Amino acid sequence: MTDVSVNGTVRPPKLATRPGPVSLAKKPPAAGAETLAPVVPLHPDAPAAAPAAVGPRRARRVLKAGRALRKAVTSERARTAGRLAVRHSLYVAGGARVVARRAWSARTAARYERMTAAAEAAGLHELAKEWEERGRAWRAARHQRRMDLLTAPQKIARSAVAGAATGAGVLLALGAALAWSTGEWSDLLTPTIGLIEAIRWTAMVIGVVWGPATTAAPWLAVAGLWAVGRHAQTAPTWAMPAAQRAAGDDAGAPITPSIVVTALRDLGIATLRTAIKRMGDNGAQMLSPIVIAGCGVEVDVTLPSGVSTDEVQKRRKKLAENLSRHEHEVFITIPPAARTVRLWIADSGALDEPIGPSPLVTDPDTGADYKTGRAPWGQDLRGDAAAISLFQRHFLITGLSNQGKTASLRAVALWLALDPSVEFRIADLKGVGDWGMFDGLATVLIEGPTDEHVIEATEMVEGLVAEMERRLLAPRGSTFPPLVGIVDEAQVAFMCPAVGKDKRPYGGTKATSRYFNAVRKIHNQGRAVSVTLWQGTQDPTNDNLPKLVREGAHIRASLVLGTESQARMALGDKAVDGGAAPHLLRQGLDKGTVVVAGDGIKVPAGQSSITVRTHYVDDAAANEIAERAKALRTEVTTRTSTAGTAPENDPLEDIAGVLGDSPRLRTQEVLQRLAERDSRYREWTFSELSAVLDAAGAPTYKSDGRVVVSRDRVRTALENRRDNASDNDSE
Ligand SMILES: Nc1ncnc2c1ncn2[C@@H]1O[C@H](COP(=O)(O)OP(=O)(O)OP(=O)(O)O)[C@@H](O)[C@H]1O
């Protein structure tokens, strides 16, 4: 016996096997069976093979047909046809639904109930009452109409009799007039016969048209429903033609009220979803007009009662995705109106476009005025120029490394450098030359990351404190040129472990920490005498940016940060609660984008922060601007170390200063006050003090058993010294 394989080959007869117990389990083929039974080609005349081949052939045909069917069903053409059929069927079904809903709405008080519920959901109780009242009036009118229907048959019968009598009368009167004019009595009935004839013709026409009309009517009705459904777009997106589907999926689809409402509805806030569903206008009442704002649009959303602004703010990512945007393309802020969130939605991809060069670069005539001017810093999200006033303001900018902190701080400093009255003292604790163009512009430029550089930076800031105190002691009405201290990478100073000879640490945040204390003093009192401090710092923590220091800054700006808690440190709780979110900027992609809180920059009414995309001023442009600034000033010799930056001290003047109005003070107290006034007196003892006083002719003396310094003696010594000096000058 031969065996036919599925691929049309014949196997030689199998060896007879002994009958044994039948197993239902499929036997595995014997190892090497295929090779033991060589396959020979099927001969066309082999009749015995035919019946055995029928089963497998049919199976092949079924398999083939199945494959062909699957291919046909899944082919693009078939899918398009399927979509077409589904789409148009759903237009008809949807149209029927819309018409039914309209009919239901027109015949019942559903519309009034819906509007009342919507007004209630939105917390508009006056409006809710108004709709309730209208609903009541509508029901009363409907009741009246129904009552009228009860008496309608009598009225109709009466009207029919009256109408028929009047009609007959009119026809007879017309006939009489006709008969009188023609002189033929038979014309009396002519109008009546004419009317009867007209009715007969009408009936005949209706009889002819009725058949086709009744045949066409259902189709016309379906066409009408289809048109209504199509207009209302009742088919789902997947059933739309490819072009429309693509537009639906398009991340850059324009923002319309319905997209915003749908995005809000699908946020996952049950109360909001229910309220929107109950709103008669599908939620449109929640939205202000959508206005174009820079490279995006802005819309205010008044939330229904029971939904807090906070809940929406927390779902920024979901909202953005519902709007077919990335998270960073949607900004949610809280305007002053109650229960309202302001959404700014970028045009898709627009935030990845550069904003163009700074006016400082493009306009060589740009000038600066410390008091009245504003540095052109960048653009806000609405596309308006964002400018910042630095007048008597301490400045703090934070951000992760390599996100544009130095560049954005430097851009502001370069603008201010164009005002020749401003003195800069700069410490760059990274020291790779980012501030190199200020050589010849700043009076101090310390560059480097070591403890020695921190010590110098600390002394530079203490020098600012000394100058501030000098200005504070100056007679009232004195004016001072602006003095701006800049410490870039200030976290290096706070983290510095170096300790001075007097055992006081340079870094840290202890009461004895020198950098920390100097910064605090400037923050507390520098503004009034135009001594301000700008600091740039990475990755804020409580250790590298203490609370007192961050809260002492008038302008607080932040580039991208890692966490919300860092954002709170950088900008303060109020700003973050109001929507400031530097932690949601994209590291690496949003370089140069800063969120700014505090004063000095115009923040939209009710908002607590503003997001600014700063112009990037690269090194070459920065050098060029610095050259322009140098050309405006008299030559400055920049010290690269603080040695000698503190003004020469005058011990006798300082002793007079600490005595103040006291007629005498114990030497111990004088020494203490001197040490507080200037760190150079910290190592003074009684012998240094009495040596200075003896030399000046104002020696100490004993009063009530204690050694004291006399105010009058010191003042007399100072006067004598001045007199001697003027005598020497005149000689
Ligand atoms: N406004 C901006 N727009 C676009 N890119 C910018 C902008 N500012 C800076 N960059 C880019 O970011 C890079 C890093 O800038 P910068 O040195 O100012 O960062 P940084 O935050 O100070 O870094 P670090 O803290 O590590 O010193 C620049 O070389 C530049 O390519």
UniProtKB/TrEMBL annotation:
The ranges of region (Disordered) come to: 1-29
Q: Where is the FtsK domain?
A: 378-568
| GO molecular function terms attached to this record | ATP binding
Which residues take part in binding ATP? 399-406
Q: Which InterPro entries match?
A: FtsK_dom, P-loop_NTPase
Q: Which UniProt keywords apply?
A: ATP-binding, Nucleotide-binding
State the protein's name: ATP-binding protein
Which organism is this protein's natural source?
Streptomyces carpaticus
